[in-house]
Design brief:
Order of helices and strands: HH
Distance between the termini: 21 Å
Structural class: mainly alpha
Number of helices: 2
Radius of gyration: 16 Å
Shape: elongated
Number of strands: 0
Helix content: over 70%
Length: 69
């Protein structure tokens, strides 16, 4: 395993760990938001899912930019 592959694996591990903890606590957050508004609970889920995919999208753009140099 070369240095770039190892760094990518470590970054993916930390991202997945952080989002795993967030996903574990997501039902509690949704119930709290749902007690205020059902729409707010839906917005919380959309933000979580958008954040999950946005982090990996930004990471891939960063890696592509570094590879092109």
């Amino acid at each position: 395993m070369d240095r770039d592959t190892r760094n990518a694996a470590i970054a993916a591990f930390w991202i997945m760990l952080l989002f795993g903890v967030a996903a574990y606590n997501l039902p509690k957050v949704m119930l709290a938001a749902g007690s205020v508004s059902g729409i707010l609970a839906g917005v919380v889920v959309v933000i979580f899912l958008f954040g999950f995919f946005a982090v990996f999208w930004l990471r891939s753009r960063s890696q592509r930019k570094n590879r092109d140099k």
